[in-house]
Every structure is written in structure tokens, then in C-alpha cells.
Design brief:
heterodimer, A: three-stranded antiparallel sheet, B: 173 residues, five-stranded mixed sheet, two-stranded parallel sheet, 27% strand
Chain lengths: 432, 173
């Protein structure tokens, strides 16, 4: 394999293949480890054992394979091996018109689909110079924050499940189902709704949505109290959360970690506050932060974020402006259905959009949003045609995964499992 | 975001620091500042932007590649820099040719670039000199070609079944 020496020549792309495939499976050698491992004063006294965690293991939250070196029960090093669910979504997007690519990008981080679609739509809107009507922005914020609650609820259930608290999964999924019911009301789908469009949203919310949503936000704070009552005084939970998986704030910043992991270490960096996009500057909410950045802080930060999200949804429902839910630019957005029967022009626009899509002027845009896992950036390169020349998602799970080795080093393997759970990687987003 | 004037001033500072050849050009459109740098000087330039500049960018938010086919040089590597203190973003871009796709690695400056440079190497074949462990990351290790290049065909890869795995190249070495 490439040994990291600076070379002035093209890569040994053929040379690497001379090593037999099965040999390369074992290519991670212990020689690459520095002894003693940085941060620990322990010398290896016992034999090292290398085990595979995953890829098919429920505690890895997907198909994440961790080649873990153990000394007794202590994790000495770990190397994430990813790519098991790589499906080439970014490549597939290059073969789709812009409005069809939304369907693809939603499937990257499959628990935060609204965020993927939002980042992509905002990139395309910036390239087009398209304004989004205020009602559409509010509807987007409502769905984004509901999605954040749903994503954190799923994290809470699976994380507690990893630590043996099976009942948490059922409680948190019960509330997550209420959110999915709301998504079903507004778009007809529970997952991968494709509700966001370039220039706005697909449809206005139906009658009854607001009442049902208010019912949800009224009961949600009480539900979070109940989760905390289950976990916060649970001796097992506290013992396994507190002072495990600590990574310093400076190191997290070097590793590019964002989102709840970074905020748990005391850095109040939330793109919704720091660099407001959409209409987030119109809402009042707090950015919860932790102190030392252990697993307990990560848990507390996410719980507090759910409360803040509920507050944002409530404010957005209160201030929901009247008006169109999608831009009136017929070059970008489909005309209303009823116009097709009477207006020739609407029919032409409809036909052009459906068969060809819309053209985007050449340029490139990078837009970042705060997803439940951190900075989700979408880079779109447009070449003037109706299909993007490049779509890249800077997925927070992918970048945050680099901090896993540092979280695990020196901890016992049971705490390492807790660290994976608190890292909250979504492998669909990691592998894309 | 630095405005158009700020971007020019920044480019001027880089030129005086690293020589005129370091900065290929500046691009300010749609409220986004992009600095295009010579591939050979990217490490020095990012080190300067991180540490020595009056307006430093200490956080590398994203590193990704793209293919500018049919333009030459084809391959692009983008560095999305972020200053959390000033809440500003700066895009740095460099372009290399497919025949000599060498860019200095910035892993020593920004450890977050580790996975992301491996991804760009995997998908575009850009070689990051000085990267500690430049292997494929998402594609299988014995994969041939760089699938995100624009001349790599969609679906140009045979699907592996039990009946054809012996005939597919290099599967059982």
C-alpha cells in the first residue's frame, strides 16, 4: 500500500493491486501504532488482540466495521473501515435533473432527510439566485426542527438500547412515530418525503396539520421529562456515561467535528445561531452546550436540543405567514394543477420542467446547514445544463467518525460501545 | 464571507507572502469568495491562512474534489475554510491535471483532512503528497479507476454474482 512518502509521480494505482486481495484485508498492522499510545502511560503488558467490531452488528448503528486492537478489555486503537453501503449517490446525482436529484440526496443521511434536501435546495437556489417565499421558509423550519426531534429520538432509543435500556427504544420511537405521522400529513410519506423543492416546498400543509402539530409540541416537553426520569437517575446510565469518551474541545476542532459533539465540549457553535440561514434569526432559542465533552454531556446536549427544537416549531407555527408556499417563477417551480386546464403557457412550462428540468447557470456553491449531527454542507457545481456536474455532501457523520479512535483509546470496550452510540454516526451519510 | 475587496486584499497579502505564482486568481460571485491557488503552494498558503494572516481561518469545514471536464486542468480540489471567530467562510480552490494529479496534503495542518483527502483520492485520483495513509476509503481496495471522474461511465461496472465472479478480473487473485 501507499506508505505515505511524498512522491512526485502519479499514484501506484496498478502497483497496489499486486498485493492479493485477501492479504490486504490484513493490511492494518500493529507496527503503525506508537507505543505507549499517546495519552496513556500504560505499556502493553499482555498480548494484543485485534477484533472486528461489525460490520454487521447492531451496536455499530449500521454497517460500520471497526478494526479494534484490545489489550485485555482496554481499547488501544481502532480503525474505522467504511464503504459497505456506498451506493454512489453523488455520482447518480450527476445523471439526474436538479429537481430529481433531491430524491437522491435525501437518502444519504437517512434520519435527517429534510436537512439533506434543504442543503441541496439552498445550494441550487443560490446558483439560480432564487428567492424563497417567507411561508415556504417557515414551513421548512417547522419540518426541519420536527426532523431534528425525530432524529434525536431515534438516537436516544438506539443509544440507550446499546447500553441495555431496552424500554427507552419503545418510548422514544412512540414519539418519533407522531412526528412521522405529521410528515405523512404534509407530504404523503413518512420517510424520504421529498417535501422540499427548489424555490419552496411541494405543497401547503393540509388542514388539521397545525392542530396536530400543536398537540405534539404540547406533549413533547412532558415526554422528554419522562425520558430523563428514566435515565437521569439511573445508576448504570450515569456510570457508563460520565467521564467516558472525553475528547478535548481543541482536538475536536482540529478533527473538524461539529454539531452536538462539539457543543458538548463547550464550544457554542451552531450554524443556526452563528451564521443564520433560512429564517432562523427570527426565532428565539438557546444553544445548549456541555462542559467537559464526555458522553454524558453529549446526551444532555441532545436532550436539551430537542426542547429547543420544540420551541422553534411552536414559534414558527405562531408566526406562520400567509402567502405562496413556492416561488412563482415558472421556470423553476411547477405551475398549479388547475392552471394546466386553461393556460397554454402553464402547460408549456409544465412540459419543459417535467421533461427537461430547469437549467442552472454555471458556477459553484457551497451551503452549510446545521443538521442533527453537525455541519451538513452541500457543494454543487453547475455547468449550465439541467443536471449538476458535481454534488458533494460534506456529511457530518463522515467527518465526526474520525474522532472515534480518540474517544475509544484507553477506555474499556463497553465504554467504547457507548462512545459509538453517542457519536451517532449514520452510515448512509458516511458512505453516501 | 469576505467581500470582493477583502478577497482582493487577501490575495494581495498571499502574493507578497508566497510569491506571485501562488495565487492563480480570485472569484467572487453569489456572495461567495473563492481563491484559486497554484497546486504546489496549497500547503504553504493554507498554513499562512491558518496561522499568520491578520484574518485567520482556523477551521477546515470541508475538502472535496470535482471534475471540470472538458475544461483543463480537469481536477479541482476545494477547501472550505471557516473562521468561527469572524463567522466567515472562504473557499480555496486548486486545479490539477489528470496526468500529474499531485497536491500537497494538509493533514498536518488540519487533521480533519485525513478521511476527506482519502475520499478525493478514491473518487478522483488526486494524489496528496505527504498524506500518512493514502488508501481508498469508500470503494473496495482492489477497485480500478476513479468513479467520480466525469469520463467514468455510469453503471460501467459489472455486478458480481456467483456465476461470473471467476471471470471478473482480479476477483480471486
Amino acid at each position: 500500500m501507499t506508505d505515505g512518502e511524498p512522491t512526485g509521480t502519479p499514484p501506484p494505482s496498478r502497483g497496489a493491486l499486486e498485493i492479493p486481495y485477501r492479504e490486504r484485508e490484513r493490511s492494518i498492522s500493529m507496527d503503525s501504532l506508537d507505543w505507549p499510545v499517546a495519552g496513556t502511560a500504560l505499556e502493553p503488558e499482555t498480548e494484543l488482540l485485534t477484533i472486528n467490531l461489525g460490520p454487521h452488528h447492531p451496536a455499530t448503528h449500521g454497517v460500520l466495521r471497526l478494526l479494534t486492537t484490545l489489550e485485555g478489555e482496554t481499547v488501544r486503537d481502532t480503525q474505522p473501515i467504511i464503504g459497505y453501503v456506498h451506493t454512489g449517490i453523488e455520482k447518480s446525482c450527476e445523471d439526474q435533473e436538479y429537481w430529481k436529484a433531491i430524491t437522491f440526496v435525501e437518502r444519504m443521511d437517512y434520519l435527517a432527510y429534510y436537512f439533506n434536501a434543504h442543503a441541496f435546495c439552498m445550494s441550487v437556489e443560490r446558483l439560480l439566485g432564487e428567492e424563497v417565499p417567507p411561508r415556504a421558509e417557515y414551513l421548512r423550519v417547522i419540518h426541519l426542527e420536527l426532523n431534528r426531534v425525530a432524529s434525536h429520538l431515534f438516537w436516544l432509543g438506539t443509544a440507550a438500547l446499546d447500553l441495555g435500556a431496552v424500554s427507552m427504544l419503545w418510548w422514544s420511537l412512540r414519539e418519533r412515530d407522531l412526528v412521522l405521522d405529521l410528515f405523512e400529513m404534509s407530504s404523503g410519506q413518512r420517510l424520504h418525503t421529498r417535501y422540499f423543492q427548489v424555490g419552496g416546498v411541494m405543497e401547503d400543509i393540509p388542514p388539521g396539520f397545525e392542530a396536530k402539530c400543536r398537540e405534539f409540541i404540547a406533549q413533547m416537553p412532558g415526554r422528554i421529562d419522562q425520558y430523563e426520569a428514566l435515565l437521569d437517575r439511573n445508576e448504570i446510565w450515569l456510570q457508563r456515561m460520565k467521564h467516558t469518551g472525553v475528547v478535548s474541545r481543541e482536538r475536536l476542532l482540529e478533527l473538524g467535528v461539529t454539531g452536538p459533539l462539539l457543543r458538548a465540549a463547550g464550544e457554542p457553535w451552531d450554524l443556526r445561531k452563528a451564521m443564520p440561514y433560512s429564517v432562523y434569526e427570527q426565532f428565539e432559542f438557546n444553544v445548549p452546550i456541555g462542559t467537559i465533552g464526555d458522553n454524558y454531556d453529549r446526551y444532555r446536549v441532545r436532550m436539551a436540543e430537542m426542547r429547543e427544537s420544540v420551541k422553534i416549531v411552536e414559534q414558527a407555527l405562531d408566526g406562520l405567514p400567509e402567502g405562496p408556499y413556492i416561488t412563482s417563477n415558472r421556470k423553476v417551480a411547477l405551475p398549479p394543477r388547475h392552471e394546466l386546464a386553461t393556460s397554454m403557457e402553464a402547460l408549456i412550462h409544465h412540459f419543459k420542467l417535467v421533461t427537461e428540468g430547469f437549467r442552472v447557470p454555471p458556477g459553484e456553491a457551497y451551503v452549510a446547514v446545521e443538521s442533527p449531527r453537525g455541519e451538513l454542507g452541500c457543494f454543487v457545481l453547475a455547468d449550465g445544463s439541467a443536471k449538476p456536474a458535481r454534488v458533494h455532501m460534506r456529511d457530518p457523520s463522515f467527518v465526526n467518525l474520525q474522532s472515534l479512535a480518540e474517544m475509544g483509546r484507553g477506555s474499556v470496550i463497553a465504554d467504547f460501545i457507548a462512545s459509538i452510540a453517542m457519536l451517532d454516526p449514520i452510515l448512509g451519510g458516511v458512505d453516501r | 464571507m469576505p467581500d470582493a475587496t477583502g478577497l482582493e486584499l487577501l490575495a494581495q497579502r498571499l502574493r507578497s507572502e508566497l510569491g506571485d505564482v501562488a495565487v492563480v486568481g480570485t472569484d467572487f460571485q453569489r456572495d461567495q469568495a473563492t481563491l484559486e491557488l497554484a497546486p504546489g503552494r496549497i500547503h504553504d498558503a493554507l498554513a499562512y491562512l491558518r496561522d499568520d494572516d491578520d484574518e485567520p481561518y482556523e477551521f477546515l469545514a470541508s475538502l472535496h474534489g470535482c471534475d471540470y471536464l472538458p475544461e483543463q486542468p480537469r481536477l479541482g480540489v476545494h477547501y472550505q475554510l471557516l473562521s468561527m471567530a469572524r463567522r466567515e467562510r472562504l473557499a480555496v480552490r486548486t486545479r490539477v491535471d489528470v496526468d500529474l494529479p499531485n497536491v500537497p496534503s494538509v493533514v498536518d495542518l488540519f487533521p480533519t483532512a485525513d478521511f476527506q483527502e482519502r475520499e478525493v483520492y478514491d473518487f478522483f485520483g488526486v494524489v496528496f503528497d505527504g498524506h500518512p495513509d493514502l488508501r481508498r476509503i469508500l470503494m473496495p481496495e482492489d477497485y480500478e479507476g476513479h468513479p467520480q471522474r466525469r469520463d467514468f461511465p455510469m453503471g460501467g461496472e459489472p455486478v458480481l454474482f456467483t456465476f461470473n465472479e471467476h471471470t471478473l478480473p482480479r476477483w480471486y487473485d
